[in-house]
Structure formats: structure tokens, C-alpha cells
Amino acid sequence: MAILTGLEPNRVFRYFEAICGIPHGSYHTKQISDYCVRFATEHGLRYIQDEAHNIILFHPGTPGYEQSAPVILQGHLDMVCEREPGCAIDFEKDGLSLRLEDGYISADGTTLGGDDGIAVAYALAILDSDDIPHPPLEVILTTDEEVGMLGAAALDCSPLQSRTMINLDSEDEGLLLVSCAGGLQADCHIPVARKPVSGQAATVTLAGLTGGHSGAEIDKGRANANQLMGRLLNELSKAVDFHLVSVEGGLKDNAIPREAKATLVISPGSRAALRDAVSHWQAVFSGEYDTTDPGLTLTAEFGELGTAAAMDGRSQRNVIAALVNMPVGIQRMSTDIPGLVQTSLNPGILTTRSEEVTLIFSVRSSAKTEKEALYSRLENLMALFGGSVTRHGDYPAWEYRRTSPLRDLMVRVFEQQYGRKPEVQAIHAGLECGLFSGKLEGLDCVSIGPDMDDIHTTKERLNAESVRRTWDYLLEVLRQLK
Asked: For the chain, which terminal residue's Cβ has fewer other Cβ atoms within 10 angstroms, N or C?
């Protein structure tokens, strides 16, 4: 049963609900890409689908706009897949279970993928219409944006004629984004050696944190589960004799991790000491993060007596020291744009294998030199523990253009529609605009979008009325781009 029937613009919400019914997490975008191919075929549109499953859809200008300069509409096909504990959804097979409440759209127990499913819905709704005036359109829908902008990096832009682009990957109505940070993924590898130990298994779990987008929410002061777990293990080592078997936390490098857990082996006589220490640090952490992370919980569970292959003393000290000393969060604020985070990093994924612990960071900066300095800092930190760092998904910053006809037009149209000036800002989160600006010389670009809250978390929600207003705004911008 359709949940969004009756919402306006009907065509936009019909496509958004269809998209939500198709699995489209990062690295698993073939189904949604093929859906766009079927759409193009059914509507007689020229299209390009590449090996990365990126899609480019072409639509001629409407009557009176045939000779206008072409315009790019751009968004991405993939979504961040997070779910609540106990949620049975399989993101590779199942669609989302949508909810509509008090004018907000969300998904039951999971992320919604409004970032950036609404962009795809906007684009398809425009291409499906015969009564919306617009210049020739080149619609670019990329893949794997949420894991390093891999699709945009792989896209061959030579078929594109336009040098004017409206990116639809923003989450704040009334905000025109005109610059963003560059970034990279840094995988830190800490080697570990193991030895057999006997005792009682224990699992310490930190959960219920708020999380969020590691760019857009990095300045909110929210707790990072991987950082807190390192701090906890360091403090536990002063009160409890334990052997560390594994430590895990987070699912996405660009999402502030909400949960982390450590598997330990303790002596049977240490149960009470571990319980007391966990209870104490639950109170400490809850006090420190009562405003930003009110749902924080810290628990200890005990398993069977037995033998396990735990980290040896040196490896355990190295892992805990790395977690305690790693840089986290904001490293520098911009001196040019008040309130803008210039450089930050997020340890988003923590995993343990038999021979190493891996910590994956999302590194961001508006300044290339600071991004490189931060990566070098991670290299030096890992070297202290005999480890190494590898980098992936490097993408450039999107630099501010002093002269932008598109920005001027969009400011003017906004004032006409809303009766006030929009905010024109830079953002610390990464956008694909930087990659496209590097590939398409002279590209004039602005990023917009409707109001979304708590993206990349299971609390994500999309404001339906904002979707309508942003739709009206987008159509008027296209109309005036004649």
C-alpha cells in the first residue's frame, strides 16, 4: 500500500516511494541504476549507463527553450544503510518501510535515504513531465557517493555539454551551498599478535548514541562510540585485569558511530570489578553527553569459561593507546567564513581481524594542505605502533566562485518566492560538485535541497512540505534559465 499517495507534488512522491522500495545502499546500486534505464527506455530518452552504474539521462529543451544552454541536474543513487538493533531488514534485498507522521517522512527502524533519493525523485518527475518549461537537461545520477564519491570519480564527463549545474544533495531549504570541503578515506592498520588465555568471556557494549553525518553534524559535539570505547578500555585497564580479544564499532566512515563493543577475557573473580567500573563510566559518559546523546548506554555481559586467542600485552597496549590518542572531530575552524568547520576527521569504522585492528577515518578539509597534514599525522601515529595507513576515495574541495550567474539567478528567484534572502554558504560535508568542477572547466554550480533531519541515522526524516516548496523553487529556476 502506497504511504505517500495524496502528497504534493504527487509525481515527486510517487517516484520517491518507488525508489525507497528498491534496495540501493552503497556498493549495491545496480537495481536502482537499472530502474533508471527502464525509465529512460519507457520515456524515449537517450541515456548512458557506465560500468560503475552511473546514469546520465538527456532531455531536449521544451518549446521555446530548444536553443537555451543545457543545464545539469545532479544527485546520487546510493544511500547510507543504518538500522536499529532488532530491525530485520536486509538492505541488499528489501525495500524500506515508510512512515508519514505530522508532515514528515521516515522509515521504520532504518535510515530513509532522503539523502539523496529525493534528488532522483525530483529529476525523474521533471523528465516525466510535459508541462514543465526547461532548457535541455543532462541529468547525472551517480553511485557510491556515500563511500567516497566513487561513481563521480569514475564518470566520463566528455558527453556533457553543460557548464551550469544544480546539485540536489543539500538538506536545508533556504540554503544555497556554493563551496564544500575535500576529503579522503584513511584506513589505519594496527598489527596484533595473539596468545591463548583462559578465563571468562565478557562483552562490553556502548550503544544508543545519536550519531549523524560526519561532515554536517561534526560540530554538534556528539559522542563518537569508537573514541569513547578507547577511553573506556584505557580506564578499565586500571581497574580490571583483562585480555582484549576484539573491538568493533561503527558501520560507515562518514557516519559518526553510534555503537561499539569490546570482547574481553577476565578472571572469574573480576566480574564484580568489571560491573562496577562499567556502571561508573556509564554515569560519567551520561553526564558528559546528557544533552547530545541522551540515549547512551553502557553494559557488560558475561559468557562461558574457556580459552580464547587474545591480543598479547604489547598489542593490547598499542590498540588502546591508538584509540586514546587518535585525533577526532574538529581540528580547525575557518578564519574566512564564520562558523565553518575547515578541517576535521571521523573514525567511523573499527574492526578486528586475527592479525590486525583497522580504524577507518573520513578526513575532510577545505584546505588541501591541511587535509594532507592530517593524513600525515595519522601515518606518524600508526608508525608508533608498527602500523600503516592506506588512502582511498580522495576527492577535491569545491572552491568558491566569486562570479556565478547561476548563484545570482537562484538568489533572485528565492527572494521572489520566499520574500527574503537565502543563506549562501559553504559546507564542511563533501559534495560531488568538487569532482565535477575539476572535470568540467568553468562549471557554475549551486547545491540545494529540502529540509532533512538526522541524515545517516535511523532518526532521519524528510519534511514533505519543504519538498513541495523546493520543487516549486527548482521549477522556477529552470523556467528562468531560458
From this structure: N
The H or E element containing residue 245 is strand 242-249
Q: Is 185:348 a contact under the CB 8 Å cutoff?
A: no
User: Which amino acid type is present at position 27?
Assistant: Y
Give the residue carrying C-alpha cell 509525481.
11
Which of 17, 78, 217, 454 is catalytic? The answer is: 78
Residue 410 contacts residue 424 (beta carbons within 8 Å)? no
Say what the pLDDT of residue 266 is. 97
User: What are φ and ψ of residue 224, in 5° steps?
Assistant: -105, 120
Neighbours of 187 (CB within 10 A): 17
Instruction: Give the amino acid at 29.
Output: T
CA 423 to chain centre: 23
Q: Positive or negative, the Cα torsion across 255, 259, 262, 263?
A: negative
C-alpha cell at 424: 549562501
Sign, CA dihedral 218-221-222-224, equals positive
Instruction: Pull the grid cell for residue 291.
Output: 544533552
Q: What is the pLDDT of residue 1?
A: 57
Q: Can you give the pLDDT at residue 190?
A: 98
DSSP string for 300-331: EEEEEEEEEEEEPHHHHHHHHHHHHHS--EEE
Exposed / middle / buried, residue 102 (Cβ in 10 Å: 0-12, 13-18, 19+): exposed
What pLDDT, on the 0 to 100 scale, is given for residue 148? 81
In the chain, which stretches have pLDDT less than 70?
1
Predicted local confidence at residue 335, as pLDDT: 85
Strands (E) across 50-110 are located at 55-59, 71-76, 98-101, 104-107
- The percent of residues in the chain predicted with pLDDT above 70, rounded, is 100
- Cα angle for residues 411, 413, 417 (degrees, 5° grid): 115
Residues in the chain: 482
Pairwise CA distance, residues 473 & 471, whole Å: 5
Rounded to whole angstroms, the Cα distance separating 55 from 45 reads 12
- 78 is known as an active-site residue: yes
Is 301 part of the annotated catalytic residue set? Answer: no
Q: How confident is the model over 330-386, as pLDDT tens digits?
A: 999 988 778 889 999 999 999 999 999 999 999 999 888 999 999 999 999 999 999
Instruction: Fill in the amino acid letter for 65.
Output: Y
396-412 pLDDT per residue, tens: 888 888 899 999 999 99
Phi-psi domain of 456 (left: phi exceeds 0; alpha: psi -120 through 50; beta: other) = left
Provide the b/e sequence for 330-363 (b: ≥16 CB within 10 Å): ebeebeeeeebbbbbbbbbbbebeeebbebbbbb
Residues 6+ apart with CB under 8 A from 238: none
ω into residue 9 within 30 of 0, thus cis?
Answer: yes
Marked catalytic residue, from 115, 116, 144, 145:
145
